[in-house]
Every structure is written in structure tokens, then in C-alpha cells.
Amino acid sequence: MDKKKATLVLEDGTTFRGYPLGATGETIGEVVFNTSLMGYQEILTDPSYKGQMVVMTYPLIGNYGINEKDYESRKMFLEGFIVKECSPFPSNWRSQTGLNEFLREKGIVGIQGIDTRALTIRIRDAGSQLGIISTTDPDVLSLMKKVKSSSGLNGVDLVKEVTCDDSYEWKDEASSEKLPKKYRVVVYDCGVKYNILRKLSGAGCSVTVVPAKTPPRKVLDMKPDGVVLSNGPGDPAAVPYMVDNIKGLLGKKPVMGICLGHQLLALTLGLKTYKLKFGHHGGNQPVMDISTRKVEITAQNHNFAVLNPSEGTIHKSPYGDVEITHVNLNDQSVEGLKCHAMPVFSVQYHPEASPGPHDAAYLFDRFIEMMKNS
Questions:
Q1: In the CATH scheme, what architecture does the domain 159-373 have?
Q2: Residue 352 annotated in active site
Q3: Would the pTM count as exceeding 0.85?
Q4: Which CATH code fits 6-148?
């Protein structure tokens, strides 16, 4: 382990001393914890973590190394990485480099050797808050001053930081790419994970990914059979242009929303969103389908949620009745919506998992069936 010191300071003054992980320097972000036991590379490359520093609750991270085929986006967007212990000796036949070396090469500042259990409890009790990691400045008062001068995630458009610059056709190297493509799907890239594109391709869809500010008329000119609103980072209320895009698509094409796409669809339908105390990050969130009472264990990564305006499950909107279809069993937050008057539905969790359980993979089949019927 590097004998140099690293310091983590939360905005409430809570301080942890450890050792550098990855690149040296300073980084500021909202500190959140992820309860997944594995899949750290997919977490690192998930664009939804833009603006955040991730604490892994599992104590040993990096034991199977890093390989380029498990990326979930073109680069890493998170602000920092926090672990109890980074394995210096990865062991896996697919491994191409170690975690520490990978973070250093990509310029991601992190910290290891701290009590991540105590840090997680602090976040759980006090809520998510800004923090700073520094390998150059050990002075707590100086670091707190830097943190307090930084803005949080509320009201900040992070989608523009992660969306693609130009439209592109998704090409999957897997064997599923050889299957005939029956449907054409356009995916709005608000920070899309590659496994969403892989799942759509594997289900028989040709997939075109477009930047978040693509006008709906341009999407409709592509003559898609359906449109997917992807996951992404930050506050959905800070992305009004996506709400305008969705308004131009509702009733014209089948629409499926995932994570941030779910929240954006809710705003379009007249519902509201709010910030969770410490978010949902991990692969063990229980979600119930209200109609069947079936419970799915789901993968999630979000700090904002849809507000249920009443005790019921049916709500009026300018587009007809909107039904709440799924709820989180831990806190009763809204996990799914569907429209009665048009082929539109969304979920807060990740049916593509990666990493996580596969309980919700059927939702891609539901979207395919929706396009078939339309």
C-alpha cells in the first residue's frame, strides 16, 4: 500500500484518513454508498454516477481485476471511488489490469484503508452529502472550505455532461447481433448503459442512439417502432428539454423509460420528483408489482424518485390515466408507471442489471410486445 496519506472530509466535518487509490490530487462530489458485492467495473463506468463519489460497502474490491469488455459506457464519469481495501493482486483469466492501476490511468482520485462501514452508517443516518478526497491537502478546515464552495446535484443538468455528441448505430459483437432485426428502436442517451443496448439488440432490435437534445421530429423521421428513455445522472427537473422531447413522442410511438427516463416521463405526465435521503444504489432492492403482488429483487442507482401524489395508484394527467405499477418495499417509493391511453411504461430500476439480478429482464419482452401490437 502507498505510504502516502489521503483524506476524505464530508461537508458536515466527518473526516477519514486513509491511503491514495488511483490518481493523486483532489476531487469533490456527492458521497453515496453502493451495496453490490461485485460488478465494480460496471459501477465505475455507469454514467449515472456523474457528480458522485461511490463508497463500496463490500470490504474487498478489485480481486478480479479490470477488462475492457465489461465497460458500461465510453469512459468513467464518477468523481471518486472509496473502498475499504483494494486488492493488489487481481486473479481472473479475463483481467487486463488491476483496479488501482486502472483508476490511476483514467485520472480518478480515490481513497482506501478507511472504515467504509462507519462512512456508510454516517451517510445512511445523515443523508447523502458532498465530500472531498485529497492526497495533497491534509488540512480539514481547508478541505471543508472547498466542499462548501461547491454546489450539489439539485438543479444541475448533468445529462449534458454524459450524453453522446452525435447519433450512432449500436453494434454488438455478441452472437445476438447475427439475429434478424425485426424492430427499429431509438434510444435517447441521457447516460445510457451499454447493457441496455445489448439487451435490445439481443431481443431483435436495431438500435440507434441519439443525443438528449435531439428534437422529437428528427426521431420520428427515423421511423422507429419504439423509443427508449435511458438512465442517467442527477436531477430530472434540471432537464426540461427532455420533457419537451417526450411530449412530442407520446401517443405517436411506444415509449419505455428506465431510471432517469422513468422520472422524466413522470414529469411529462404531470407528476413530481424529489430527492431521496441517501438514494438507492445496489443490486438488492425489493420491488413489488402491485397487480400480481410478485416481488423482484432489482438493481438500482438513483438519488431522485417520483412522488406519489395520493394514496391511490391511478392519477389523472393531460395524457389520460397514469397508473403506478410498482413500489419499493423498503420505502414505498414509486418504481413503475404505465399509461392507460397509450403504449407507454417506465420503471425506476434497471432491467438490464449489470451488475445485479435478472428478475426484471422480462420488461424488454414487454416493450417488444408493445411494439408488435402497435
A1: 3-Layer(aba) Sandwich (3.40)
A2: yes
A3: yes
A4: 3.50.30.20
